[in-house]
Amino acid sequence: MSSRDTANVLWFDDLHRKDVNLVGGKSSSLGEMTSSMNVPVPYGYATTARAYRYFMNATGLNDKVNALLEGIKDYEDSDELHETCEKIRNMIVGAKMPDDLADDIKEGYAQLADKVGQANPFVAIRSSATAEDLPNASFAGQQESYLNIRGEDDVVDRVQQCYSSLFTDRATYYRHKQNFPHEKVALSAAVQMIVFSKASGIMFSVNVANGDASKIVIDSIYGLGEYIVLGKVTPNHFVVDKQSMKIVEKNVVKQTIELVRDANGGTKEEPVPDELQEKQVLTDDQVIELAGYAKEIERHYGCYMDMEFALDKNTDRLWIVQARPETVWSQKKKKADAAKEEDADTVDASDAKVLVRGLPASPGMASGVVHVIDNPEDIDQFKKGEILVTLMTSPDWVPAMKKAAAIVTNNGGMTCHAAIVSREMQIPCIVGTKSKKVAATDVLKTGDVITVDATNGIVYEGKVDSIVKKDNNSAQGGQVVAAETFAPTATGVMMNLGDPDLAEKYSTLPADGIGLMREEFLWTTFIHEHPLYLIEQGHPEKVIDMLADGISKVARAMAPRPVVLRLSDFKSSEYRNLKGGEKYEPHEPADLLGWRGASRYYDPKYIEAFKLELGAVKKVRNEFGLKNLNVMIPFVRTVDEAKKVTDIMRNEGLVRNEDFKVYMMAEIPSNIILADKFNQYVDGYSIGSNDLAMLILGCDRNNDTVAHLFDERNLAVKRAIKHLIKAAHKDGKTVSICGQAPSEYPDFTNFLIQCGIDYVSVNPDMVKATKRNVAHFEQRIMLDKATGRGLQDPTDYDWE
Ligand code: PEP
Ligand code: MG
């Protein structure tokens, strides 16, 4: 056994990327750059996995922890789990570290002080978990980080706190579920000189805008780098040519705010001094110096790299603080390299073998490599361009779903989560394969090459080139062409769109506005944290700012056309998945029928969060001046609820008027039956045919077993719709529809027009077709009226 294997502490100079088992991924990668490359990495050392085990054994904690864990009767009982884990964490933090280990850590700190030439320097302490026998230890424990730590005793204390973070409720639960013994995980803490960032940023050794491998791109802002990630500040952008090492492109935009480290720990926002605001954040020389490091790091790792850097305000030195392989363009390159080989595997359409069938939830074709995700915890392993195969998706999967070439699920009907999201993002998607006898996850295995024909709901074995090419050439291929012309229509054609990243692209479609912007997309894509948790953390402004940011992107892209933002309509199981949600969300047996929509807004438990949603609307309308934003209230069960919610809105300063409309989803039978009573509280309705069909037919929209009975064209649903339009029009209220029905059944749009609907709101891929269909249907009605002929619809829709 070498001395490295028995060391409690190893310096970055002695570490290499192969040392993941000794010190975890983070420290071994910082070590690789320090020991084997000519790049400046802030000095530091790591406590080893061995040191953690020694601590746990010498203090007797290992046995005590095991005994406590064995005592857990029910891991599903979150109170019991929490109580035990808290006890374990307190025991670890409170234990006395063996003297020789504490001395090694303190000795490391003293040497670090010598190296930086300061007594008691500030350090950052970061934890990284390691797990024996497993290359991917990300599940093993929480990744704690402590900044601004100073003094040897504090350093030892924080290392112990890092150790305790292996026993968060979530990590413990997950190891149990995986049958992974707790003794097999260990924790390494990296103790590293802190950089007091005057400026910081990110760089890539490939131009991420277009994949040009001959360029390095560098983005830099004043202060800490978080504001780049959050998009709060537009960074200076530099492009450097790798060959000539010259700056070939430069974009310097004024920066007025920066995030800086607070002397008392934490961070705070400050204005950038006036004289610096319009100045280049980095000098040209610094840009070139960074580009040199980027080149060196890429050469060493042999792939495109994604790196973070910081410029120290005391020394004016540049430091590389993180380097990891870049994924998007590396993946594309790999794909292009593999394409020639793959071509040999191409299957002829006539020989293609059908593997699975399901419901065609979002049209399109794609072929690629299957990645089966059984456990939500593994979703971050999903890579761009793969085909996602799973039981069912949930809102916190959206960022991963965006990367999928196609999606295939076992469960769900045409209005389930996977169906709605993939249609919005125009990703081919097949749901409910189980309902067609063979479940996708029984047949499709990670690594298989398949072709998904989501227009017809069929999955083929191998790469069936003719199918994929046919789709790429077809008019439905998702390309947005602005030059086509469309006849004006009396019935407005709107679009359903919630993802702000797509707003610019789809704004060129001939839609008359956004008929449904689901707020849930903003939570799952940008915010990720539960609103009540953010309030508890003292950051309510984060909700307002991030919501307003996302909403304004859509409103700005569409202006002057109207945008209808639907206020939050998460179910409790979905809210629970947001960070911190566990504490606030009830466990409901059927949450589609539970605490959702309007019923939350006036509830004392949620009202403060609702006010933040309204705050974001006010910010977009009043501060950003985007008056094309209107709102919609979902899932209003009673007339009293409509009153309560609109009262709160009024008290918050959101009053209906000529240029601010408040709509209501018509998606519960009571909305239809009592439309004459609801009318006084709203400007109009949008029919949620997904929930409405579910509730009229008593047919769970997410249950594939009854998917064949779920049909919005049922006479009961049609009668309800006709009645609503009549009742609404009597009081001058408009009616739209934003459920899936008109996107799925073009003929349904004909029925709606016959009933006098004012708008139809469809998925982006159906906007053009619907615009054409509506023009056609309207002409037909006029022609029939003029000639007195035309087909009589035999169905009796009237219901009085
Ligand atoms: C509906 O119910 O038809 C609707 C559009 O809302 P969601 O699918 O988000 O419930
Ligand atoms: Mg609904």
TrEMBL record:
Q: Which InterPro entries match?
A: ATP_grasp_subdomain_1 (IPR013815), PEP-util_enz_mobile_dom (IPR008279), PEP_synth (IPR006319), PEP_util_AS (IPR018274), PEP_util_C (IPR000121), Phosphohistidine_dom_sf (IPR036637), PPDK_AMP/ATP-bd (IPR002192), Pyrv/PenolPyrv_kinase-like_dom (IPR015813)
Q: Which NCBIfam families match?
A: PEP_synth, PRK06464.1
Q: Does the keyword Kinase apply?
A: yes
- The name this protein carries in UniProt is Phosphoenolpyruvate synthase
Which GO biological process categories is it annotated with? gluconeogenesis
Q: Which family does it belong to?
A: Belongs to the PEP-utilizing enzyme family.
Q: Where is the PEP-utilising enzyme C-terminal domain?
A: 483-777
Q: In which pathway does it act?
A: Carbohydrate biosynthesis; gluconeogenesis
Q: Which E.C. number(s) belong to this protein?
A: 2.7.9.2
Q: Top-down, what is the taxonomic lineage of the species of origin? A: Bacteria, Bacillati, Bacillota, Bacilli, Lactobacillales
The reactions it catalyses are: pyruvate + ATP + H2O = phosphoenolpyruvate + AMP + phosphate + 2 H(+)
Q: Which keywords belong to this entry?
A: ATP-binding, Kinase, Magnesium, Metal-binding, Nucleotide-binding, Pyruvate, Transferase
Q: So which cofactors does this thing need?
A: Mg(2+)
Point out the gene that encodes the protein: ppsA
- Residues in PEP-utilising enzyme mobile domain copies: 382-457
PROSITE patterns documented for this protein? PEP_ENZYMES_PHOS_SITE
In this chain the Pyruvate phosphate dikinase AMP/ATP-binding domain maps to 21-341
